[in-house]
C-alpha cells in the first residue's frame, strides 16, 4: 500500500468530463509533478486531493484512510496555491503562525515552530516584515513556510513559482528540491512548465485532456515517450506518421531505418533533434538548412527535407560549420528511434 492512493478520480462539470479516471500511487517522500497543457485538468485533480473540489467519482486514500469525503480543513494537507495569497495585514510571522492558531497549538510552541519554518526557507530575520515589504520570491517562500509549519503529511503545490522571473524560479527550484529532500515530505506539484517538472520531480504524470498520458521518471519519459503528445510536450521531437515494412519505416515513399524488432504496420516514428547529426557519408535524408538558432548551450537547426521540416540540435562546443542555406545530409542511429502507436495510445 502506497502512502497516497488515488483511484479512478473523475470530475464532471455539467456535461464535460475534465478529469477522467485519474489513478496514481505516491510513495512516502516522493515528489510528483502533474504536467500538461493549460486546461488539461491538473488543478482540478489537485483541488480534489486538497478537498476543495468534490470528485464525481473515485477514491483518495492517505496512509490507509479513505479521505475522499473528508473536509479540506480536516485533511491536514499543506497547500501552496497561486491564488492562496498571504494575509496583507499580518506580518510574516503571523502569516506563518496562522495555521497553528487554527489548530490551537499553544503560543510557546507556535513561536518555536514559526522560527523553525522561517529558518527552513532562509527567512529567519523576516518575521516582523509585512508581505508588501518582500520580493516575489520571498513571498513564495513565506507561503511555503506557512504550509510546512503544520508538518503536513502531503504538500500540494499549484504553480507556486508562476509569478517569478526565470532566474528566481531556477534558484527556487534548487531550494525547494533540497528542502523537500531534507524533510522527506510527500509532494504533488502542478506545473505546465516541462523544465520545472523535469528538475523537481521523482516522477512526472503527463496529462492531456483530462487523462493521464504517461507516468515515469523524467529521464525515462524523455527517452521513451509513449507517443506523439509525450514526445513533443516534453522536449522537442521529429515525428512522422507512416508504416513499418520489414526493417524500414516508410514515410511518403521515403525509407527510414526502423529499430530492430519494430512492430509491423501503421505507426509514428519519433527521433529527438539531438540524436541527429550532420553527415556527408551515409545520410538518411538530405535537405537545406532554413534556420539556425542559438540557444546558449546548444544550437538548433531547421532543415527542409522531403519528409517535411526537421530539427537537429548540437551542443555549443565549437562554432557550427553549418549555416542557413547550406545543403546537408542527416544521419541518426535507428536505436535512438521510438516507434509508437499512431497518436499516442501505445
Ligand atoms: P491551467 O494550467 O490553465 O491552470 P489546468 O490543467 O490546471 O489548466 P483545470 O484548471 O483543472 O486545468 O481545468 C480543466 C478544465 O475544467 C478547463 O477546461 C476548465 O475550464 C474546466 N473547469 C475548471 N473548473 C471549472 C468549474 N468550476 N466549472 C466548470 N468548468 C471548470
Essential attributes:
elongated, 25% helix, binds adenosine-5'-triphosphate, 5-stranded antiparallel sheet, 346 residues, alpha+beta, 9 helices
Note down, in words, how this protein is organized:
This protein has 346 residues and is α+β, with helices and mostly antiparallel strands. Helix content is 25%, strand content 35%. It contains 9 helices and 20 strands. The protein has helices spanning 42-50, 72-75, 92-102, 107-120, 136-148, 166-183, 194-200, 218-223, 228-233; strands spanning 4-13, 16-26, 31-35, 57-62, 65-66, 78-81, 154-158, 186-191, 203-208, 211-216, 238-245, 248-251, 254-257, 265-271, 276-278, 285-294, 298-305, 308-315, 327-332, 338-340. A 6-stranded mixed β-sheet has the order 6-7-8-3-9-10, with helices on both faces. It has a 5-stranded antiparallel β-sheet with strand order 13-12-11-14-20. Strand 17 and strand 18 (308-315) form a beta hairpin. Helix 3 packs across helix 4. Residues 13, 18, 36, 38-44, 192 line the site of adenosine-5'-triphosphate.
